């Protein structure tokens, strides 16, 4: 990255902020940050505040903020450069020239320290987030590279150890974001260990060079506790696990005072609190206590942090306190699935109401899918005190807002909780669709199997009530889950579920067998061997001998016919869309895409295996389908590109669009890295990896409505 002249030249996260509200919430947070205990960061936060004012059009506030920095530090190069930019923005050209001349004079006479501060303020701004994005990780690395230059240029200046220590702590904060477990999974383990060693080195330097009673010393001890807890290569980070030992100690720690604390994070946190009761110290300590399931003590630590700063800028403490209370109440309610009518119920309801209040503050300041999911969960727990549909509706609204916050990210837990809430409100079809989305969004080798377990239970209930047509649909989701979960975990789950209804699973396995991969065949065979001795008659053997499990006819009968359903389009077309796809991809089209668009979103679709009319040629059916459909969806996969029929249908659709000059009538959905045919390359497509991200799903719905 080239050296920036001012903050406005930096590739900041703010330039990609999605809306004004996100910038305004960060302004509120920054106003709290200006009063931080670390003096060198006060001006750095003011620069960011002036920058954000500028981006939302409050140019007078931006001007005043940068002027106030000059009042405190007349040689601040960033304040002078930023004022030049703002003055040009308000067309005060003469003043801009005046500040530019002053900046040049200061720069010509300045020493290495002022230049280092100039870069450090840029490094701090570079790592600041308006909204979370996994694609912005490079900024943390670039920020740390800039801090390294600052530290190199000021090496040996003992009179600014607090300032240098602050820059080191900022580097550690960047590392902490990179150290997040979700980000580490994709990195080389050796890089993780190298990063960990670097963090240990920085903390030791801070500890050795700053006064023992300073805020930085307290933060160093607290961060030692955090990183002694969050060791690299740990096997588990589930709440309540106790796996602090057994990880090889970094060589840089051996022989130092910190060696004896390596397996004792609590002592590090306690030592930090004795030095200074700081917000970050309390937050780190509380997070570790939450991990240890010491909920009451964790709540105490987060409450003490809130007492130090009850403003919106301390939203993290509010969030963690609410999380502690939510988990604590969940465990108290779980046995009966309802709040007991006992003395403890008063405490549970009080804790849940406080958690709701905290999460409502959090989503106002930092609206994320996670925060809305937690808020919805608290509402759902509160509703278990009675049949209050109003509270359940609030839970449903929170989950819906959480789904709207997903920006290409997967959150299977949010879909799972959303499904539970819909089920509680009696919205069975919607609940099933949301649970299906949870299974779709699972990561490979997942161990969280509650979603597929619940979904199969719901299918079994439908089957027992005579809905035998759901077997192919259930088989599709079972097969998808098989590809998502660890084999041993999934086998144990399957054996538990079979006890509920053996007949259902025998039919489901029969449906799966004809298209099963060798791995799935082996899995089904192993499961059947385990249950064969429990069958009291020859039911299984009769089933096996029936055409070697030819299964069911999965053509069109299991796809619900829209019948008299009215199309949503207002253009007079009989159908809202026609899906062009390869027959090899029909299961995903039928049970995921078509199900969601027709059953959940109430569109009226047209699909070949259900709606093509007998007696007409395929070409006639294709042309009629395109002529009577408002939009044409192309599901482009490797199978699609190899199919002559798919290519013909796509070209016919394009021909109609060109003839009628209809823009946006063709919507391509591309699977993974599939190469799009040349004649479709000029169309913007939705790219998916086995599942349509929530934001792209909304884009698809909007495209169908336009």
From TrEMBL:
Keyword Transmembrane attributed: no
BP GO annotations: signal transduction
SMART domains: TIR
Keyword Transport: no
Annotated organism of origin: Patella caerulea (Rayed Mediterranean limpet)
Residues in TPR repeats: 43-76
Keyword tags: TPR repeat
Ranges for domain TIR: 573-706
Pfam families to which the protein is assigned, alphabetical: TIR_2
Lineage: Eukaryota, Metazoa, Spiralia, Lophotrochozoa, Mollusca
Protein name per its UniProtKB record: TIR domain-containing protein
Transmembrane segments: none
InterPro entries in the record: TIR_dom, Toll_tir_struct_dom_sf, TPR-like_helical_dom_sf, TPR_rpt, TTC22
């Amino acid at each position: 990255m080239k050296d920036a002249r001012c903050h406005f030249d930096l590739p900041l996260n703010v330039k990609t902020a999605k809306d004004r509200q996100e910038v305004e919430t960060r302004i509120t947070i920054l106003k709290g940050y200006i009063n931080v205990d670390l003096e060198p960061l006060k001006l750095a936060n003011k620069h960011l505040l002036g920058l954000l004012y500028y981006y939302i059009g409050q140019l007078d506030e931006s001007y005043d903020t940068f002027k106030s920095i000059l009042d405190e530090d007349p040689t601040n190069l960033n304040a002078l450069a930023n004022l030049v930019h703002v003055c040009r923005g308000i067309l005060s050209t003469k003043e801009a020239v005046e500040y530019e001349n002053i900046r040049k004079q200061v720069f010509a006479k300045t020493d290495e320290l002022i230049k280092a501060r100039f870069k450090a303020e840029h490094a701090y701004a570079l790592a600041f987030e308006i909204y979370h994005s996994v694609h912005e990780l490079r900024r943390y690395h670039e920020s740390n590279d800039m801090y390294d230059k600052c530290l190199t240029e000021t090496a040996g200046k003992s009179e600014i150890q607090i300032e240098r220590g602050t820059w080191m702590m900022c580097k550690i904060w960047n590392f902490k974001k990179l150290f997040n477990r979700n980000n580490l999974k994709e990195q080389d383990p050796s890089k993780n260990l190298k990063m960990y060693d670097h963090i240990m080195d920085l903390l030791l330097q801070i500890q050795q060079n700053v006064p023992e009673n300073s805020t930085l010393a307290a933060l160093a001890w607290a961060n030692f506790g955090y990183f002694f807890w969050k060791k690299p290569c740990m096997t588990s980070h589930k709440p309540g696990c106790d796996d602090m030992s057994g990880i090889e100690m970094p060589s840089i720690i051996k022989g130092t005072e910190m060696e004896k604390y390596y397996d004792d994070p609590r002592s590090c946190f306690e030592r930090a609190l004795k030095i200074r009761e700081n917000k970050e110290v309390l937050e780190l300590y509380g997070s570790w206590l939450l991990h240890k399931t010491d909920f009451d003590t964790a709540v105490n630590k987060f409450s003490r942090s809130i007492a130090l700063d009850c403003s919106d800028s301390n939203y993290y403490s509010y969030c963690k306190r609410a999380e502690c209370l939510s988990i604590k109440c969940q465990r108290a309610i779980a046995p009966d699935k309802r709040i007991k009518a006992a003395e403890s119920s008063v405490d549970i309801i009080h804790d849940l109401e406080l958690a709701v209040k905290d999460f409502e503050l959090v989503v106002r300041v930092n609206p994320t899918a996670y925060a809305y999911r937690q808020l919805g969960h608290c509402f759902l727990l509160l509703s278990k005190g009675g049949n209050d549909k109003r509270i359940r509706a609030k839970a449903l609204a929170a989950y819906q807002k959480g789904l709207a916050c997903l920006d290409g990210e997967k959150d299977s837990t949010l879909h799972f909780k959303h499904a539970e809430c819909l089920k509680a409100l009696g919205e069975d079809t919607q609940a099933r669709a949301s649970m299906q989305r949870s299974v779709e969004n699972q990561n490979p080798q997942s161990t969280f199997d509650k979603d597929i377990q619940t979904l199969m239970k719901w299918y079994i209930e439908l089957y027992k009530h005579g809905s035998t047509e759901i077997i192919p649909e259930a088989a599709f989701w079972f097969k998808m889950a098989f590809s998502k979960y660890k084999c041993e975990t999934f086998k144990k789950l399957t054996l538990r579920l079979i006890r509920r209804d053996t007949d259902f699973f025998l039919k489901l396995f029969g449906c799966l067998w004809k298209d099963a991969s060798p791995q799935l065949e082996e899995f089904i065979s192993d499961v059947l061997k385990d249950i064969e001795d429990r069958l009291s008659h020859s039911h299984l053997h009769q089933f096996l001998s029936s055409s070697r499990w030819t299964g069911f006819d999965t053509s069109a009968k299991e796809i619900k016919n829209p019948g008299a359903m009215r199309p949503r389009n207002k253009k007079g077309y009989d159908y809202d869309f026609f899906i062009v796809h390869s027959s090899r991809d029909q299961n995903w089209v039928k049970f995921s895409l078509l199900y969601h668009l027709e059953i959940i979103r109430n569109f009226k679709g047209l699909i070949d295996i259900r709606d093509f009319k007998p007696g007409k040629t395929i070409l006639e059916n294709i042309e009629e389908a395109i002529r009577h459909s408002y939009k044409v969806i192309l599901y482009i996969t490797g199978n699609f590109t190899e199919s002559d029929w798919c290519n013909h249908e796509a070209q016919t659709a394009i021909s109609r669009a060109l003839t009628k000059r209809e823009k946006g009538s063709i919507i391509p959905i591309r699977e993974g890295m599939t190469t799009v045919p040349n004649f479709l390359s000029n169309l913007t497509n939705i790219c998916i990896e086995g599942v349509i991200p929530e934001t792209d799903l909304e884009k698809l719905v909007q495209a169908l409505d336009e």
